[in-house]
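FAQ: What does the model actually see?

It sees only this:
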Amino acid sequence: MKKLSLSIAFCLTFIFATQAQKWEPISSATGKLPLTWKTTQQTASLVVDIDNDGIEEIILGCREKGPALIYFKYESSIGWRVFTIEKEFLTIEAGGAFYDIDGDGDKDIVFGGDWQSNKLWWWENPYPFYNPNVQWKRHEIKADGATQHHDQAFGDFKQTGRAQLAFWNQGAKTLYIADVPEEAFRGGKWDYTPVFVAGEKEKKAWYAEGCTAADVDGDGFTDLIAGNHWFKYVDGKFKAIQFGEEGGRVVAAKFRPGKKRQIVVSPGDGTGRLLYYECTGSAEVTANWKAKDLIGRELIHGHTLEAADIDDDGNLDIFCAEMAKWSEKKTEPDNPNAEAFILYGDGKGGFRKTTFQKGVDFHEGRVYDADGDGDIDIVSKPYNWNAPRLDMWLQNGTGKKLPNISRALDGKIGLELYSLRDYFKTDVVGTLDYVKSLGIKEVEVAGTYSMKPEDFRKELDNRGITPYSTLLDFGLFRDSLSKVIAIAKGLGVTYVGTAWIPHKPNQFSKTDADKAIAIFNKAGAELAKAGLHFFYHCHGYEFKPSEEGTLFDYIVQKTDAQNVSFECDVYWAFHGGQDPALLLKKHKGRFIAIHIKDMKPGQETGEFSGGTPLTSDVAVGTGQLNFPEILRAAIQSGVKYYYIEDENAEVKQHLPFSLRYLKNLK
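And it is asked to produce this:
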């Protein structure tokens, strides 16, 4: 009877967030999710791709009874399964983080002990010798000092090229940084030092919480955000900068394009407002951080806070939710009318509030693609409300599993030949032989180096290399479309584009955009008659704010979607303050190609110059850009061509590493 009543309650509380989105609820309370664990206190939750298959799993921490750590995995041929990571009884606290601690190519995990334990542990992922029925090896990070470790985060906060672990120790009211030992897997000692001690006069200093990593000020380095402060590493020390009155659950993301990230705080363990902080000047000045209340009332134990593009429109949304129960001796909910909200972002710092659920407990709920079908799902993991229990809402049910990145892009990773321009100037034939030696079969041409287009094409054909697109000077599209057509026909390409709109340095304007729009539309129509297709390659300066969002958004809106497409250089989009993955989704179907290009740490972003030192180009996967997210968005958005571009003089040293990285992405 208990199971039946829970099932009815679950169904009755389900409501659609929007008419456009369809959510299929499944739950361990209804038998649609397996229920194998016994604890009545579910603490931590962490989303991570455990087995490197490109699909994330959710890990649950269990307190009161073993097993201490379990995870859920969806397999299309079997369904949902539960596996054990830690079978012993441990008093796991909320939080958790992941990183490749031992450097073997998989994600290891970290969790801390609660008020009963002074320990912090990491578990060694057994992948690739992976057997889901084998318990992971547990190591100690900390086994002294005060108790309770609520929230952790990894990031290269010290700018060393290797991540450090940040963690709260609530018993000491202290935020610590720990260096990852080179031989952590051999039991190497983790040295940790205090970063911040919560003052007695600060609000909720007795229970500081919330911890994440992001580049807050756009200087190209990862910062630590914890509680109501963010921490900038300067001259070997962490500078604490207060951005809000109170801390709690915290996310830092770009809810609108620009140099700086915005920060959202939910009260976590307590009551308080859901506050959205935006910086109006220097991010290092507390007074420049302005707060906006997003809900209009206090949240009660708002222990779930996530940021994701839930409706797949290219704008980040916020998911926040309250707990229904936290008292251990009571049987009835403390907060029976607990609400969960989706706040749909407009990409300009505005949000449309909707109620997703009422009367359901969310404690460290998560928002991610749980079933691997390409859309965002929502997971509720209660603390002690009807526990043990797990609830999921699958967006559009479970669709066809998406292929992983390496499989989807197998044979499609190409090269923008401009990367090798200095070599082409002296040796066209030898340079093309080099391209062939890399195994590259698709290219974009940017110049034929005194050769006729048809002769350059013959050299490509002789090596089994196919050009699909070319970039030409803007003036040709303005003044000589017949020459554009002749070059394209000679090269045998279908897609013909340009990569720069003339304008005064750092002064790209709407007038410049209007002139380009007229030329693009005319060129697109004329080229279409010749069986060709026009595209524009973004270069960063177009992302200045405008009424439409940015001037790039304006160009997209005002050009003919049938005849004008775009190429997303993810480096320049990022440099212009964009999240390239969101940009690709925002203009789904308009990008026919991307330039895969990475940016070194320390290169500032949020600028509109369209220029950086060539030394800022680094091997793909070693810089600031998140290529798993970018490439998944590109695949789902219909991008056809994927060209590596690297303008660094060390390009020949970089290319093998870039190709290896891309071919191993899941």
